Amino acid sequence: MTDLSATAAEGVRPLAVVTGASSGIGYELARLFADDGYDLVVAADTPLAEAVQTFESLGAKVDAVQVDLATEEGVTALHERIGGRPVDALAANAGQGLGHAFLDQDFDDILAVVNTNVTGTLRLVWLVGREMRDRGRGQILFTGSIAGLMPGTFQAVYNGSKAFVDSFSFALRNELKDSGVSVTVLMPGPTDTEFFERADLMDTMVGQGKKMDAAKVAEIGYKAMKRGDGDVVAGMGNKLQAAMAAITPESALAEMHRKQAEPGSGKN
């Protein structure tokens, strides 16, 4: 766990940066930070005014920026909003999904997923992580996914992007193991957020199936970050699925995912 005593000694509240904070897991993470005495810099590609009111009601000073983190300009605008202030925690949560068969997807939509989940995330972590390393303290929380543990038939780009995030987090954690900066990856399964609607997955079995509460998922990830854990899978059912993925052939996993994510699979 990162020692925040230095921040307290400076007479300022710790600062957390949370992306994708307008709803879902990101909103719940930001709420947890605010309730825990952090000030916030929050970002999302949708309006943040309502969320900011909630965070401020918990005592946080909040700076908000509505930007597209798939773009260099969006990440730069967020970093500029931080304004050189020491960041004690970064929750790199912003993500985008995409359903349907790869060859049927619009390539601009494909790029948006890759640039949000991978390129934008890397750019932000590179900027903030270097500053954390220079100070010798900080905590980074990635929102990965158990989707990154299996081939994502009819979600191939999304699952591939989360496989990158999951893997990258472990590598970065090892690189920073003696730096005072901890790295944690939260790997949820299906969660009750706007993700499935935005990814056009509502007619699939996974879109129609049971999902975990976003607040519970965020709490699991938040506690793991505070402990300095390397990773955490949210939910017992998802833990079992992750364990199965480790011993099941990739071809079988791809077929299992097909049954969950194929368009029309959620219709009776």
From TrEMBL:
SMART domains on file: PKS_KR
Matches recorded under InterPro entries: KR_dom, NAD(P)-bd_dom_sf, Sc_DH/Rdtase_CS, SDR_fam
Instruction: Enumerate the UniProt keywords alphabetically.
Output: Oxidoreductase
PROSITE patterns per the UniProt record, alphabetical = ADH_SHORT
Question: Where in the numbering of this chain does the Ketoreductase domain appear?
Answer: 14-193
Instruction: Identify one Gene Ontology CC term for this UniProt entry.
Output: membrane
Q: Which Pfam families match?
A: adh_short
Keyword Oxidoreductase attributed: yes
Write out the GO MF terms.
Answer: oxidoreductase activity
What does the sequence similarity comment in the record state about its family?
Belongs to the short-chain dehydrogenases/reductases (SDR) family.
Q: Which PANTHER family match?
A: DEHYDROGENASE/REDUCTASE SDR FAMILY MEMBER 7B (PTHR44196), SHORT-CHAIN DEHYDROGENASE-RELATED (PTHR44196:SF2)
Protein name, entry field = Short-subunit dehydrogenase
Name the source organism. Answer: Brevundimonas alba
Query: Which lineage do the record's taxonomy fields give for this organism?
Result: Bacteria, Pseudomonadati, Pseudomonadota, Alphaproteobacteria, Caulobacterales
